[in-house]
């Protein structure tokens, strides 16, 4: 890595906002920002295996672990935003009724496939289906894929009543890329899942000033407006 480059390891759910802010940071600071996006479980594994980014963006639980291990630069951590989950359908499918928990259950039972990923949102989705008594009823109709993007890709490729459960921010990323899906609605309030994200410079960064500066940008009031436009509130 060159002296004028810093690396960011970032959760995929906040991809759009982080990419925009990093691009502006590059223009204003003349420091190149290389971003690697991964699921939160992958970030945990990568950091445990010795990954050495300059900035990390992840859930509070992972950030707490990193702080306890001395991997976060003191005073550099801040709140980025919160992501909510939604139901995804094919772009040409009619929007289903998702006005409440019972309506949600009816939509799931009527789907040809219910898709979620193996990341944090997918773990919540799996638990929710189990909690609502849907997992056994759906059986093999539950499809588990690796990433949020893969959820949308599956639904786009299976237009006959396939539905996905995913972070709203990730849905918006894929729609921007031309994926043939749409957000039917957020999960009903009674079963909604909210995932928070923090950003911090790492203690081992070889460019500590630039790392701290980018972490400040990602957690600033101006950044929150950018994240809000990408589905992160």
Distance between the termini: 33 Å
What's the SSE pattern?
A: EHEHEHEHEHHEHEHEEHH
Find the count of extended strands (DSSP E, 2+ residues): 9
Count of separate structural domains: 2
* Poorly predicted regions: none
Strand proportion: 25-35%
Main beta sheet: 9 strands, mixed
Category by helix and strand content:
alpha/beta
CATH class (first level) name of the largest domain: Alpha Beta
Known CATH architecture of the largest domain: 3-Layer(aba) Sandwich
Provide a descriptive summary of the structure in words.
The structure is a single chain. By secondary structure, the protein is an alpha/beta fold. It folds into two domains: 109 residues, D-Maltodextrin-Binding Protein, domain 2, CATH 3.40.190.10; 110 residues, Periplasmic binding protein-like II (D-Maltodextrin-Binding Protein, domain 2, 3-Layer(aba) Sandwich). Helices cover 42% and strands 26% of the residues. It has ten helices and nine strands. Strands 1, 2, 3, 4, 5, 6, 7, 8 and 9 form a nine-stranded mixed sheet that branches. Strand 1, helix 1 and strand 2 form a beta-alpha-beta unit. Helix 1 crosses helix 9 and helix 7 packs across helix 8. It is elongated and about 55 Å long. The mean pLDDT is 94.
